[in-house]
Amino acid sequence: MRPAELDRVTVAEAADRYVELVRAKTLTGALSPATAEVYARDVATLVELAGERVVLDDLTGADVDAILLAFARKPDGRSSPGSGRDGAGPGGAGRDGAGRDGEWAGQSPSSQARFRRSISALFKHAALAGWVQLNPMTTSTVTARERGGLRAERRALTREQAQGLIGAAQALPEAPAQAGKRRDQRTELRDAVIVLLLATVGPRVSELVRANVEDFFTNDGVRYWRIFGKGGRTRDVPLPDGVARVLQAYLERGRPEMAGAGGEKALLLSWRGRRLARGDVQAVIDRVQRRVDPDQRRSVTPHGLRHTTATHLLADAVDMDAVRRVLGHSDLSTLGRYRDELPGELEVAMRSHPLLRGRP
Question: Which residue of the set 154, 186, 298, 303 is catalytic?
Answer without folding.
Answer: 303
